[in-house]
Amino acid sequence: MLKKTLRYAGILLSGLLIAAILYTGYKEVGNSYYLASPIENVFEVQKVIVPDFTLGEDPNVVYERLISRSFVGDFIVEVKSPETNETICFNGAKGIKYSAGEEHIPIVNLSWFLFAKDLKSACPELTTGQYYLETNYTIHIEGLPDRHVVNLSNVFEVLPATPRQCCRPFP
Asked: Of the chain's two ends, which shows fewer C-beta atoms within 10 Å, N or C?
């Protein structure tokens, strides 16, 4: 009886060892695919478009992305001058959870994109002129090296605010 039990235990252990080897091999193949494939197979920013707007406004931003594999990521958004590439202001966040299939983003404004409560607090240095956004994403997948994605928006213009004219007629 003991021999039979030891035999079954040996078969069971052999099966578990084979399963562990197959799982490790599968995981390694998946990891190798991740490392060898373009990062767009995990996360792709398809477009970021900021319209021209008047100083003081917080415009809606067209933001389209494709998430093919869940991950945790960090991002930094910089508002830059196209003439000098100088950073005017920046903001970001760490530890954001991105879920596969979560492509749809509701209409967002520029302050949301800069991860701020409002545009003035996010970028008080923003004055009239031309700018673009540079967004740097860092993708963290457990057990794998970090990968990076950089996206540039269109060039947009911040226009001067027009003074409000009072239209009270003279008597």
From this structure: C
Backbone angles phi, psi at 17, to 5 degrees: -65, -45
Which residues, including other chains, have CB under 8 Å from residue 11's CB and lie 6 or more apart?
none
Per DSSP, the three-state class of 5 is helix
Burial (Cβ within 10 Å: 0-12, 13-18, ≥19) of residue 86? exposed
| Residue-level pLDDT at 165 | 43
Torsion from C-alpha of 76, 83, 151, 33, nearest 10 degrees: -100
Contact, 72 vs 95, CB < 8 A?
yes
Question: Can you spell out the DSSP letters for 100-139?
Answer: TT------EEHHHHTTSS-HHHH-TT--SEEEEEEEEEEE
- C-alpha torsion angle, residues 48, 82, 89, 78 (rounded to 10): 40
- Provide Rg for the chain, Cα atoms: 26
Whole-number pLDDT of residue 24: 56
Q: What is the pLDDT of residue 4?
A: 64
Q: How crowded is residue 130: how many other Cβ atoms within 10 Å of its Cβ? A: 13
